[in-house]
Amino acid sequence: MNNLQRNKIKDKAFKYFGVTCTFFGIFILGVFLFGIINDGVSRINWDFLTNLPSYRPKKAGILTAWTGTLWIFGLTAIFAIPLGIAAAIYLEEYGKKSWFANLLEINITNLAGVPSIIYGILGLEIFVRLMGLGGSLLAGSFTLSLLILPVIIVATREALKAVPLTTRTASYALGATKWQTIWNLVLPASLSSIITGVILALARAVGETAPLIVIGALAYVPFVAKTPLDEFTVMPIQIFNWISRPQHGFTINAAAAIIILLAFVFVMNGIAVYIRIKAKKKSH
Amino acid sequence: MKSIKEKVIESILFACALITVLTTLGIIWVLLSESYSFFSEVSLGEFLTDKEWTPLFSQKHFGIMPLVTGTLLTTFIAICVALPMGLTIAVYLNEYAPKGIRKTVKPILEILAAVPTVVYGFFALVVVTPFLQSIIPGLSGFNALSPGIVMGIMIIPFISSLSEDALAAVPKTLREASYGMGATKLQTSFKVLIPAASSGIIASVILALARAIGETMIVAIAAGQQPRLTFDPTVPVETITTYIVQVSMGDVPHGSLEYKTIFAAGITLFALTFLLNNISFWINKRYQQKYE
Amino acid sequence: MSESQSESSFKIEAKNIDVFYGEKQVLKDVNMPIEGNTVTALIGPSGCGKSTFLRLFNRMNDYIDVFHKKGEILIDGKDIYRKKTNVEELRKSVGMVFQKPNPFPKSIYDNIAYGLRIQGINKKSLLDEIVEKSIRQAALWDEVKDNLKKSALALSGGQQQRLCIARTLAVEPSVILMDEPASALDPISTAKIEELIQELKEQYTILIVTHNMQQAGRISDKTGFFYMGDLVEFDETQQIFTNPKNERTENYISGRFG
Predict the structure, then answer these.
(1) Which other chains touch chain C, taking contact as 3+ CB pairs less than 8 Å apart?
(2) pLDDT at A176
(3) Phi/psi at C113 (nearest 5 deg)?
(4) Rounded to an integer, what distance in angstroms lies between the CA atom of residue B81 and that of residue A2?
(5) Which regions of chain C does DSSP assign to beta strands (E)?
(6) Distance CA C256, CA C258 (A)
(7) Which residue pairs, CB below 8 angstroms and at least 24 apart, start in A281-284?
(8) Domain that holds residue A166
(9) How crowded is the C-beta side of C88, counted as CA atoms within 13 Å?
């Protein structure tokens, strides 16, 4: 009897501890966002968005950073999306059961766990030096494309898997080829899940700092990139640069830039979640 | 017989899949070839046993241990935060929370992992360190503790989400057997569910560990850049990743011994995470076989 | 027996039970008085509500979000759905054996000791004693006595199910609920379980859900026939099988025999 009551009390206590832990994470996120917005929001104005970098915090802006981020975002999307989806289609629809498919599978799992800075080292040697691209947008987006490729592949494969076998067999029964079936039925049916995965992967690329630092993206770029071969900086690197400086003015700048970066990342995550929910509703 | 078009398409798709293999080979080749020339100048013995890492100074030492301990120290602190929190959250969401809460909370927690790490670095340096300094007098402005804790918060969703999946995959019949004998939710969770899901949980923890070891920006911003062989969390340390960033930001001439150090550091990092990822993968594979 | 003395002379009594899953009613005004030290079989086609009914007695339905009920379930005269019922204590005294054997992935010994340990009983000699007694009661002792440390998952299906029965017996319940305990087993194991049920009747009150008509006929004292949420007929087993009052009962029973 006594033991039963004690167990009951322990059970209750753990429940409250669980609630506390769960909401602690969310609470920290809230406190943190609030603090940053509090620090930085007053700094955001037109000049901040359109000024070039400067050694005086009040005059410094993020024009080169956000344009660089958009460049990187666009170029990475162009390279990574078709590659990733194509690789996933091969793995899921064609290359099943062979030893090589097995190897590809283990390989992708491993790549997904390689630290991003290692991709930076790869990009530095292959794209920057060997291909002679230097610290350009092209080298940066190539590097990030390889980084997010496993993420896109895994997400796309999950999406393809969800298309029922009956859909495929029905198509084959009508005399469609494998590719016709994939192109006309399987891809359209899984498109919204694929898009969700792709957006989440790109959001990750936008937030990456370390690999771009390693390939030599610069903290100080006094012009807006015009071609993919230009040198560049991105928002996270600009933020990193400002955080590393002692003057308080730059800390405020960093907070302001973080607000803009987070807004971008969260909006992308939001769109991804929205598409997922909408697709779920449609399928029911 | 397949038409030519079908064959061409299949080949193109195959080529795309092949890029992932080339990426791996590229990583291994780059790390090995540059490290090879590094180790032709610095002996492996010195690399592993020297207690100092000062390649950028005039008095050069090439002992990787200070960077490794810096990495392990911040990772250890992160796991000390993330493991109890993440596991508690997983158990709470799996056994206690109403369905509605579970469905809402899981994606919100996953946002923690979507925040760019440079932002966490800012948080560690500007918010957490000053806060800790008010509690722990003598805490250095750069230290292992603050970025360790923040990194721990970042990897909570790795542990909570994946462990919750593992707990949810335990057959319902085991849960019912335990409740049927009068066990509380707490007893059922810790005596039946967690042991039954242990391989999935361990795999998630190892994955989180690998993530913490490879994490760069938080430690680069808040842990400092002083390689030091210590397990004292209150003083500045340098991790492997921070060192690579430090060299990349400086003007080290290409081809010099200093330049090659980042590959030696990189291959150490790669080996550590590769090992952990494969252990996790292997445990997970075994685990899946058990229930299917 | 204490303050709220029994308004019921029966060991167990279901009074005016309605059960709903959300909007859907799955049990309709069921009344069933059950005497102590008897075996009661619950039969009926799939989806008739018999398993739901069984799970009322140890409140296993509590875990279904959309579940709610009306009416009373009395055990030893007390409504187990009272607010102050300690569900864990209830389940200690109302044990359950499930359709598929569900041993924990632990050793044979630890499986049996689980229920005792969660009550805080850790004394080795006491555990040893109860473990042996329970396994003997479940007629499994001779087969496992040399390997108590072996994983329970290594046992055969029939042995696993007897282990699960032993695990239930170890906490000394007064009522045992069995949800098609032999449906996943071979005929020899089934026979052993049936024999066991007959022996357990001496000490326990047993409710058993079964699809197997012959089994119900062989082992039970009373039988309740459920159909689409109604308890169509509830009577002496012999009466039900030889001279059912209701046409639906007769059709079901003969259909199954034919």
Answers:
(1) A, B
(2) 75
(3) -75, -15
(4) 34
(5) 12-21, 24-34, 39-43, 67-75, 78-79, 94-97, 175-179, 205-209, 222-227, 230-236
(6) 5
(7) A282/A192
(8) 48-283
(9) 21
Residues B209 and B246 in one domain: yes
- The tens-digit pLDDT sequence of chain B (292 residues) is 457 888 899 999 999 999 999 999 999 999 999 999 999 988 998 999 888 888 888 788 899 999 999 999 999 999 999 999 999 999 999 999 988 888 888 888 888 888 999 999 999 999 899 999 999 988 999 999 999 999 999 999 999 999 999 999 898 889 999 998 889 999 999 999 999 898 889 888 988 999 999 999 999 999 988 888 889 999 999 999 999 999 988 878 888 888 899 999 999 999 999 998 888 888 877 765 454 3
Residues 71-130 of C with CB under 8 A from A: 86, 88-89, 92, 118-120
Q: Is residue A4 scored above 80 in pLDDT? A: no
Is residue A105 domain-shared with residue A179, that is, in the same domain?
yes
Q: Is the pTM of this model over 0.90?
A: no
Answer whether residue A282 shows pLDDT above 70: no
Total domains present in chain A: 2
**Residue position matching structure tokens 């089934």:** C190
CB atoms within 10 A of CB A159: 25
Q: Which amino acid is at C87?
A: V
Phi then psi for residue C16, to 5 deg, are: 50, 50
Cβ contacts (< 8 Å) between A209 and chain B: which residues?
A: 116-118, 216-217
Q: Selecting from 1.10.357.20, 3.40.190.10, 3.40.50.300, 3.40.50.920, what CATH number does the domain C7-100+174-253 have?
A: 3.40.50.300
Nearest 5°: the CA angle C100, C101, C104 is 130
- Its sign, for the CA torsion A190, A191, A196, A200, is positive
Partners of residue A244 in chain B, C-beta under 8 Å:
221
Residues A91 and A20 placed together within one structural domain of the fold: no
Report the b/e string of B157-166 with b at 16+ CB within 10 A. bbbbbbbbbb
Interface contact flag, C106 B184, Cβ < 8 Å: no
- Decide if C102 and B191 are in contact by the 8 Å CB cutoff: no
ipTM of the predicted structure? 0.90
> Among candidates A84, A74, A82, A83, which has minimal Cα distance to A138?
A74
C27 φ/ψ angles, rounded to the nearest 5 degrees: -135, 135
Strands C230-236 and C222-227: what pairing? antiparallel
Phi, psi of C183 (to 5 degrees): -70, -25
Terminal-residue alpha carbon distance, chain B: 37
Q: Are residues B225 and B195 in the same domain?
A: yes
Cα-based angle A36, A41, A47 (whole degrees, multiple of 5): 135
Say if the Cβ atoms of B182 and C91 lie within 8 Å. Answer: yes
End-to-end Cα distance, chain A: 49
List CB contacts (< 8 A) between B248 and chain A: 120, 124, 213-214, 216
Provide the residue type at A160 as one letter: L
- Same domain for A22 and A146? no
Q: Which of A96, A265, A88, A91 is nearest to A190 (CA)?
A: A88
- CA angle, B130 then B134 then B140, to 5°: 60
Q: A6 touching C, CB under 8 A?
A: yes
Dihedral of the alpha carbons of A177, A180, A182, A183, in degrees to the nearest 10: 170
- Annotated domain spans of chain C: 7-100+174-253
Note whether C86 contacts A3, CB cutoff 8 Å. Answer: no
**Alpha-helical regions (H) of B40-137:** 44-49, 65-91, 99-114, 117-123, 129-135
Whole domain around residue B137: which residue ranges? 49-290
Asked if B100 is an interface residue toward chain C (Cβ–Cβ < 8 A), one would say no
A254 vs A236: CA distance, rounded Å: 9
